[in-house]
Write the structure tokens for this entry.
Amino acid sequence: MLIDTHCHLTYPGLLEQADAVVARAVAAGVSRVITIGTDSADHIKVLAQLQRSSAVFGALGVHPHHAHAAGADFIATLRTQFAKNCKLLAVGECGLDYHHSEAPREVQHHVFESQLALAAELNLPVILHVRDAHSDALAIIRQHPRTAFVVHCFTGSVTDVELWLELGAYIGFTGIVTYKNASHVADACKYVPDDRLLVETDAPYLAPVPKRSIKTNEPSFVLHTAAHIAMLRGTTLENIAEITTANAGRLFGARLLN
Ligand SMILES: [Zn+2]
Ligand SMILES: [Zn+2]
């Protein structure tokens, strides 16, 4: 059993075929999929997907790309949605993106910190999106020592991953770890201890080798990322499946595995 801990079933390319995508994942042994909502319109679509399959769980957050569009009452809306739906396992994705976000940095900081406060209030883990903003994100997370979190789609170096691991992070790897031009990510992946490792697709983006030529990534392809990670770490796919599933259950809660 494998778990795709981060995908976007509600994004174009997947939404039109979401039921078939989930069926293919389950048939491939990817028996749980966590679909991530990134703004208020997307949250409604995620909630609809949770009704469609027992294999699909969710997380809701405001992505740093959408931070400038979060309404004044977005935390109150999220609080209501979390209270109503027990298949929502985490707050996120949220964080900081200095690479190509339209949202000013101070807005990103405010929206991120509000979501960390909500996660603490609801006792939920956080899914972090961090791009070109590791030192600022580390500084903010250090203020929340009791919050469990995953740094999703990890693209940093061994030095970056060391800093995150010191704060108790789980580290999520996508198909990027299979790319020839991302050897620093492969090095970071080898460095992560067994009990901190997660696998994900970030579908519809970032299809892993050997599916990279396929435009739309999908949760079943997490198998290729897990197999590559097994090769990098000198172990078996079965071992990677076992440890990453146990880690996902510890981070997101036992209800994910039931
Ligand atoms: Zn992300
Ligand atoms: Zn994402």
Summary: Strands lie at 2-7, 30-37, 56-60, 88-97, 126-131, 149-151, 170-173, 197-199.
